[in-house]
């Protein structure tokens, strides 16, 4: 079994955590360029019972999920 599955992460969450760790390990100049590339402008909404829920940015949703995961441990 993959370690990210054993840790209870989705593959996308695993990739986001790994990318953030790599970006944070860079020196200042390359780090700034990598942070700009890492910013996402994707949006999504959950649909329930044929009605669209709140539209959220993917980055915002990831931050909220990470905070919620950290708080539950």
TrEMBL record:
<protein>
    <recommendedName>
        <fullName>Mitochondrial ATP synthase epsilon chain domain-containing protein</fullName>
    </recommendedName>
</protein>
<dbReference type="InterPro" id="IPR006721">
    <property type="entry name" value="ATP_synth_F1_esu_mt"/>
</dbReference>
<comment type="similarity">
    <text>Belongs to the eukaryotic ATPase epsilon family.</text>
</comment>
<dbReference type="GO" id="GO:0042776">
    <property type="term" value="P:proton motive force-driven mitochondrial ATP synthesis"/>
</dbReference>
<feature type="region of interest" description="Disordered">
    <location>
        <begin position="53"/>
        <end position="73"/>
    </location>
</feature>
<dbReference type="GO" id="GO:0005743">
    <property type="term" value="C:mitochondrial inner membrane"/>
</dbReference>
<dbReference type="GO" id="GO:0045259">
    <property type="term" value="C:proton-transporting ATP synthase complex"/>
</dbReference>
<dbReference type="Pfam" id="PF04627">
    <property type="entry name" value="ATP-synt_Eps"/>
</dbReference>
<dbReference type="GO" id="GO:0046933">
    <property type="term" value="F:proton-transporting ATP synthase activity, rotational mechanism"/>
</dbReference>
<dbReference type="InterPro" id="IPR036742">
    <property type="entry name" value="ATP_synth_F1_esu_sf_mt"/>
</dbReference>
């Amino acid at each position: 079994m993959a370690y990210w599955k054993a840790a209870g992460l989705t593959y996308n969450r695993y990739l986001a955590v790994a990318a953030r760790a790599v970006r944070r390990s860079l020196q200042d100049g390359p780090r700034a360029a990598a942070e700009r590339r890492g910013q996402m402008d994707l949006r999504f909404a959950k649909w329930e019972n044929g009605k669209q829920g709140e539209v959220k940015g993917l980055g915002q949703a990831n931050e909220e999920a990470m905070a919620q995961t950290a708080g539950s441990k």
